[in-house]
Fold this protein.
Amino acid sequence: MPNPKRLLAHIWRTLRTVGVTLFIAVVLGCAVEKWLSSPVPDSEQGASAGSVSSVIAIAGMALPVVGVLVAVPVLASRLVHKLYDAEDLDEAHTMLNRVAFGQLTAHPFIVVSAGRISLARDPLSVAVGGPTTLIVYDDSAVVTEQYGCLKQVLGPGFYRLGRFEKVWEIIDLRPQHETLDVFALTKEGIPVCCKADIWLQIDEKPGELGWPVHVEGVLYPYSEEAVFKAAVSKWVREPNHPEHHRTWVGRVMGGYAEGVLRNILAEYRLDWLVAPPQPEQKYPREEIRERFEKEMQARVSKVGAKLLSVKLNSIDVRARDDTTTEQLSEIVSQQWIDGWYAEWENRAIELRAEKEATLLQTDMVRTRAQVDVIIRIMESLQATIASKGSVEPYILAVRLVESLRWMSFNAFTRELLPVDTEQRLKRLQERLESGTGEPQEQEKGS
Amino acid sequence: MTRFRLKVIPFYISLSLFGLSILLVGYNLFLPVLVVIITAYLNMFAALFSWDWSKSVVEWLLGLQPALLVPYEILVSWLIACLLVCVLLYLWLKLRTVAIIVTLLLTVVWVVLVFGYARGGVMPESVARVLRLCLLPLISPEIMIAFLVIAVPGLPVLWLLEPFYARAALMLLVFPWILLIVMGKYQAGIAILLAAVATYVIFRRALLIASGYLLPSDGKSVRRKALSFLRDFTLGVNYPACVVVSGLYEEDRVEERIRGNVFAGDPRDYEDSDISAIGPGIIICDCDHAVAITSGTKFKGVKGPGVVFTGYAERAKQIIDLRPQLRTFHVQALTKDGVKIKTLVFVPCKIDSRGRQSALGEPLPYNKSAAFRAFQAQPVEHESDEAKQVAWEEMPRRLAIPILQDIISKYAFDDLYAPYRLSGSLPRAEIANEFIGRLSSELEPLGIRLVGGGISDLQPADPEVYVKRAGSWQKEWEHEIALRQAAGQAAWLRTVERAQAEAQADLILELGRQLEELSMTSIGFRPKQALDLLARFLDELMKQQPTLREVVPGETLQALTDIRKAVG
């Protein structure tokens, strides 16, 4: 059912231009007719016949004006038909009538949803502009242009676009998500690839210009300034590029995200990407993620967006070509396995050493150590026997204590002996030497 | 099921018919019936209640319909005229042949009506005498009427062809009109005069108003230019009218919707007629495009966005996209030590806007002189046998490659990554900053501004380098593993040595303690006692640790036995 208000408005506009012109022409024609024509005989039949002929005469007088009022829109419609590539003259006239007098009904209308024009029965209203009805669903916002200038930002709702006002850019207000493969080089120049999971959305915080913010009663809150920034941040790429228009989403994902993450990864060595270089440091992936998020937050606001979340998935050794990736993976993964195994080996050795250390109480090593002491003592005594050519108890005893003293000087042994051990052994040795005197003196004594 | 859509012309046809029917029924049926009913009641009540005033009321009521005759006729005529406008418009838009026939019919009707006003009346003798004196043939009034009838549509057409002629014709028509009146056919003369004036004035005015709705622009000057173009278009002598669309390639961005001749303003270029264009050509751009205009011999400047009017010999030379243009390309370069590397470079640029930002109520900003410089600087590239002009948005690529190659040539290959640098910015960031700085300074005089840009990873051209790098990294690992293994071994050795030292220390301590005790207990510490103690100690030890006896070499045991014997 057409809107009565809109209908009346259209009728009013048409009447005050075309209707008034015709009316004046008819009034003048009537005046001329009454003034110039012969009076009609006064009979009943004659009166009505006179009336009919009067009407015909009056209407006939207005025929030239009728012709003009037909010729003008036809001429104008011809131009509109060619200039705006309308399907036919009728469509051109419909558009011209709409521009001049407004819409008669809600048609034509444009429906914008999911970040694009989802319905538009009249292609002229999209290409040329209004007046037209614009319906913006709750997941989109629109920036319009009129007369070669950016006109206004429109959020979800019903709107009537003005003369030649058309949709210039559509912004999807829904959260945007993409998983990126970001190729980078580590600090030592080994190629890696990191999967980054990024969620972002148009911002709803007030901007510097203080434009309206829509938070209450909308499905996806937004600020008009953010929508405008997103709309004007579109970049145009090469004609043959699949992504010919890089929108605000592409700029964040393909531009900022890749650049920032690449820079961060370039500060890390390959091993640091797996484990922190120092035990007390943060886990590298979390550290990288935090830095990434912080730097991205600062940048996405330039395109009117806000970052919802950032996650980093695995960081793999990967080059851009498969052959190199295969070779690198082989080297790196093998090396990491070797490294892991070496770690286990070391642990095994340490464990063995710890075990042997407890077993050493009764183990062969302790036995060997004792044997070693005994052997050294014996060797020392034997050497004395061999050099003196006889077994002199005095000398042997002194050599015994001397051997003990010399063995106590050993660096490892010394640490484990009480501090005064050497002194005591020395005193012992002195006592042996003084207590017995020379051997001849001993035999004499006995 | 097709939905019913209310269209303008059918709606107004329906409205007119509805209005007509209401009027016809109302005036011819409803009103008389109402008058009769009221009159009857009034007469009845007048008779009953002796109302004196009822008679005058009845008389008034009876005179109502005749009194309303003229307004009724006007309204009916008006509605018929509206209906005719709608029907004729519909026919001209949809069924041209029928429209022509109907139009001709209506024209005949009007001519007949006009001639009807010429009935009666005889040319005064004095007028006839004057005509004879002027050697003018006795022109019949009908011929004069016919001539003036042609003038009614002729004036607007003449005005289209040449406004000056229309004004002159209007002046000249005064004489035949006066003559007609003098001939006694003043009714016809007045009817024709009114028709001619109304047609001419309304045609011009309506066309001017309609022209204001043809182009996406505001303003009186635009309206007049649009009117001029409409006139040229109607006569087929217009300049071209183009629309800028979002095409991928330059040649697709301009669509000449109305074909025209860029030299239409010079009648010397027309062989058959003296009609030339009085209006401009048109180029319509959106808010994000401007257009470089040239007349072929002279550059007229960069104009737009919005509606751009062109003049004699002017045409769109190039469409300039005011949005940032992003170009990505690979660059190969040699480092200082001869290693070839490649990187992906991205340079977004746009026509310089002197810092102005986009804002509502304005088109995308740009500086006209910057646009001119960018346009002027577009070089012609000679590749193989073809020479082709390069668009301004491709120029950053041309300039960027040698700059980046120059920067990279100052770095050694390993310096590109600085694996052992502990602080400071990354080499890639330094290279990118220098690159952007130099490229910006080279583009600025060309009216082009960089809005960002950078480089991707500096990759070796030969992927084998990665494998070698991985090999170096592997060597580091191997070294690390070896160190760890050595550390592990060292730890084990230390543990073993410690255990050995512990055992030795225990033995020394125990033996020493026993010797010391012995020396404390005996007066005169005798060597034999010490040796005896040693022998007993070792015997005791070997008893406690049977494995000791097995491990101790035979010579050592023999030596012990000898010493025991020697001691006795």
